[in-house]
């Protein structure tokens, strides 16, 4: 059997191949096989026993199979992984037709080419907010089954009390919606109980996503607010007014934002949202990212003797 060695593409996007008589030292280590292929990237057969990943040839990876490698079993297994089976499941029935070295090398190269993804994550989610974003997320998470357990609550004193008496396992990921200026007691309870939480809301019609705050790690959402107060001497007065403001948006933008957020919540790893606030203009599709360090005077994750006053 021929062995596929490398997905480092040349100028034409074609991956290299080696023959079955290649030295054993070139065989790659066994890769992780509990991944599936990314469903948004189609798999296409090309003449000459070549398999193309993607629509545009100049942007796609093209896998040329060496002589002696039957394209049928390779293509069938890749299609199964494209439909959601893990790579180990997809190639389980191919070992009598494809060599283990070929399968191992191919799967490793698919990883390097970023053509694989973990199955969507189903996580325990608690929604905290009183806006239409919370309502839309609750409905969509339950409809799609993306949350293994989903509950919604309003950011009241009772909710803060419940958070302060809960464990991270009870809450899962807390998604805080509709708060331009977060509730200090709520944020403090989430942080000091070690509960991972993600902030999202609308601001002037744009969707704000982040920051994600992981257990015991700053910066938190109040760090962002502290930096705003550093820049604007009257921010405290503005924040007092914004605290009671419930952000709204047009129905069509809400219907755009909710699936986008659900897609984010399905990602296995959200850590790229730590310390980051992403602003998505749903009309122009402009995206900007703001990243900060923990604020030394943050009353939640900063020094305990902070003199900065937050109401």
UniProtKB/TrEMBL annotation:
<feature type="compositionally biased region" description="Basic and acidic residues">
    <location>
        <begin position="1"/>
        <end position="12"/>
    </location>
</feature>
<feature type="region of interest" description="Disordered">
    <location>
        <begin position="1"/>
        <end position="20"/>
    </location>
</feature>
<protein>
    <submittedName>
        <fullName>TOMM leader peptide-binding protein</fullName>
    </submittedName>
</protein>
<dbReference type="InterPro" id="IPR022291">
    <property type="entry name" value="Bacteriocin_synth_cyclodeHase"/>
</dbReference>
């Amino acid at each position: 059997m021929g062995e596929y060695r490398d997905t480092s593409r040349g100028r034409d996007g074609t991956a290299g191949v080696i023959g079955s008589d290649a030295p054993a030292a070139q065989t790659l280590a066994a890769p992780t096989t509990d991944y599936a292929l990314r469903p948004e990237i189609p798999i296409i057969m090309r003449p000459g026993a070549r398999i193309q990943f993607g629509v545009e040839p100049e942007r796609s990876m093209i896998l040329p199979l060496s002589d002696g490698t039957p394209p049928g079993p390779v293509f069938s297994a890749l299609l199964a992984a494209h439909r959601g089976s893990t790579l180990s499941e997809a190639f389980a029935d191919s070992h009598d037709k494809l060599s283990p070295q070929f399968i191992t090398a191919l799967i490793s190269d698919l990883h390097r080419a970023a053509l694989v993804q973990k199955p969507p994550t189903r996580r325990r989610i608690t929604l905290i907010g009183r806006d239409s974003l919370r309502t839309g997320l609750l409905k969509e998470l339950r409809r799609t089954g993306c949350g293994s357990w989903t509950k919604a609550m309003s950011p009241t004193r009772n909710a803060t009390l419940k958070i302060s008496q809960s464990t991270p396992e009870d809450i899962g990921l807390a998604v805080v919606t509709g708060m331009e200026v977060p509730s200090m007691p709520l944020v403090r309870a989430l942080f000091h109980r070690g509960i991972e939480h993600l902030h999202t809301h609308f601001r002037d019609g744009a969707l704000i996503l982040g920051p994600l705050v992981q257990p015991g790690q700053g910066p938190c959402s109040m760090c962002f607010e502290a930096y705003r107060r550093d820049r604007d001497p009257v921010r405290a007065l503005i924040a007092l007014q914004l605290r009671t403001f419930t952000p709204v948006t047009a129905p069509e933008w809400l219907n755009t934002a909710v699936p986008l957020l659900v897609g984010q919540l399905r990602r296995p790893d959200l850590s790229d949202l730590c310390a980051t606030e992403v602003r998505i203009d749903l009309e122009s599709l402009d995206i900007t990212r703001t990243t900060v360090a923990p604020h030394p005077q943050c009353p939640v994750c900063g020094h305990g003797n902070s003199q900065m006053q937050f109401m």
